[in-house]
Amino acid sequence: MTKYALVCGAGGFIGSHLVKRLKKEGFWVRGVDVKFPEFAETEADDFVIGDLRDQNVCDRVVDRTFDEAFQLAADMGGAGYIFTGENDADIMHNSATINLNVLDRLYKRNTKRVFYSSSACMYPAHNQEDPDNPNCEESSAYPASPDSEYGWEKLFSESLYLAYNRNHGMINRVARYHNIFGPEGTWNGGKEKAPAAVCRKVAMAKSGDAIEIWGDGNQTRSFLYIDECLEGTLRLTRSMFEGPVNVGSDEMVTINQLVDLVADISGKKIEKDHIPGPLGVRGRNSDNQLIEEKLGWRPSQSLREGLEKTYEWIELQVRRNAA
Ligand code: NAD
User: Fold this and answer.
1) CA-based end-to-end distance of the chain
2) Ligand 1 close to Cβ of residue 34 (< 6 A)
3) Residue spans of beta strands (DSSP E) within 172-264
4) Which residues contact 52 (CB under 8 A, 6 or more apart)?
5) 12 within ligand 1 shell (Cβ under 6 A)
6) Is 296 exposed, middle or buried (CB count within 10 Å of its CB: 0-12, 13-18, 19+)?
7) What is the average pLDDT value for the chain, to the nearest integer?
8) Do the Cβ atoms of 78 and 193 come closer than 8 Å?
9) How many Å apart are CA 72 and CA 36, to the nearest integer?
10) Predicted structure pTM score
11) Do the beta carbons of residue 168 and residue 174 sit within 8 Å?
């Protein structure tokens, strides 16, 4: 029997990879987004170009029951988009409207199992001031105090999905993603994340050059490779545990260490030029105790392995762009 999946945000980084993975598993997949994937042809059986803020689009897209639905569409970007304050109203309005519309349509057309991608940005800022000891345990979410409106919208939507479980008998699943990276992700233009930005800067630099780094580079983060993210996503979606649960790596590095790793992969000697810029919290790391306990799973690849594949792809983009 054919299984049907819906991927909202299928033109985006994680969504486009998820479509490929679901196709490999034999699903019939409908993707929806305002745009097609930027770097490769979609593998979805049906791809609807439409704005999920529009209720008519949601009606058209959710015209049947899906075995699994994945809601990844959001107005988002890297630190340069989320933390400047200039996009706060759009971020909150656009993403909340998408979630309200999509979830209600899925419920009314009898889809039971919906995955929602929240973000580590919902954790309280005051627990992430010590770069060596950030606290991102799931239970630390409340009292809430995220450092961005993007994080507040994620908190609202997490509650929304779980309320539909309680009140409408759905079996929605909520993950808190921590910095996902990999090939075919945004690598320039201002919405790219730290790993992609660093790979691009290093790929464009000559050995001995300095690249610009926002802040002193001692802020800490962890980064999860896309294939691991998909594995965690599908395991959670098909599990008995509703979450919210972290899907991230607990291999914490400073941004300076990230630069050194990428420089080493590239074989270039790279200096760092520390400049002011939007920073986000001082430290963040995925706490993976709960996911290990509930799903018996944790990511296995090292940061270096993921960065090698990502650097190779970004270096190719840089060369193509220059040609
Ligand atoms: P992305 O920006 O590449 O993908 C999101 C997609 O949503 C985009 O293709 C965009 O066009 C689409 N979209 C936005 N508004 C839409 C609308 N009105 N109608 C239809 N489509 C619309 O981002 P991503 O990295 O693939 O992230 C996917 C999800 O995971 C997002 O919800 C994001 O908040 C969450 N997340 C990602 C990360 C990460 O590190 N990538 C970390 C935490 C959480």
Assistant:
1) 48
2) yes
3) 173-177, 180-181, 210-214, 220-221, 224-225, 245-247, 253-254
4) 8, 32, 58, 61, 73, 97, 98, 101, 102
5) yes
6) exposed
7) 95
8) yes
9) 14
10) 0.96
11) no
d(CA 171, CA 113): 5
283 secondary structure, DSSP code: B
Q: Please name every residue paired with 238 in a beta bridge, in sequence order, or none if there are none.
A: none
Q: Which residues are catalytically annotated?
A: 150
Q: How confident is the model at residue 192 (pLDDT cuts 50, 70, 90)?
A: confident
Question: At 264, is the pLDDT very low, low, confident or very high (cuts 50, 70, 90)?
Answer: very high
Residue 83 has pLDDT above 90, yes or no: no
What would the mean pLDDT of 149-161 be, rounded to a whole number? Answer: 97
Dig out the tokens for 100 from the structure.
């309200």
| Neighbouring residues of 304: CB distance < 8 A, sequence distance ≥ 6 | 261, 265
Residues 105 and 62: beta-carbon distance below 8 Å: yes
- Model confidence pLDDT, tens digit, residues 272-299: 999 998 777 899 999 999 999 999 999 9
Rounded to the nearest angstrom, the distance between the alpha carbon of 291 and the centre of ligand 1 is: 23
Residue 191: what pLDDT? 79
Answer whether 199 contacts ligand 1 (Cβ < 6 A): no
Q: What is the pLDDT of residue 79?
A: 66
Distances (CA, A) of 35 to 11, 13, 31, 73, 280: 6, 12, 10, 11, 28
